[in-house]
Amino acid sequence: MSGMSSQRATDITSLLSQWSRGDRGALDRVIPLVYAELRKMAARQLRREADQPFDPTDLVHALFLQLIDQRHATWENRAQFFAIVGQMMRRILVDHARARHAVKRGGFAVRVALGDADHQPPAPDGHVAEVLALDEALERLARQDPEQARVVELRFFTGLSVEETAKALGRSPRTIKREWRLAKAWLYRELSALDGAG
Description:
By secondary structure, the protein is an all-alpha fold. The protein has helices at residues 6-20, 24-47, 56-68, 78-100, 128-144, 146-158, 162-169, 173-197.
């Protein structure tokens, strides 16, 4: 996402601001500017879960349906926009997984990679239970440390760089790196404990 030209990023921020002020047509004008990036985000999220009926285009279209219903969203900039739509994509997938499967505790191995390299997805042999296990662990982390949970959402699920995450959260890149490191360690322990109980 960091390869976007500064003029294009400015155009997106301007359109998001217009949309926040009630210009519904601004959404129609921003969509072509962000569509390719949204498809990349969707593909990245879908690679984590092999058992999905969505393809990237389906997931982006489901996202658009939710965006159209946004009445009171305050869009500050493109980093914040991508952070929120990344969360929305994750919610779409998690809600769909919950609707399709009643997951029992245990009986599956959790293989969710939170590697240091930007957004290396887990192997494509994932299972819906892994998505739900990670979602539940992330919800526990959010209760304990909301900032670390936001960092995981923005880095792992949304695909923002350290610098973009820092901008979206109003923190320094150094702080984001520290929070990312701590959050990954915490999630690893949680998911490993779950795997060991299975």
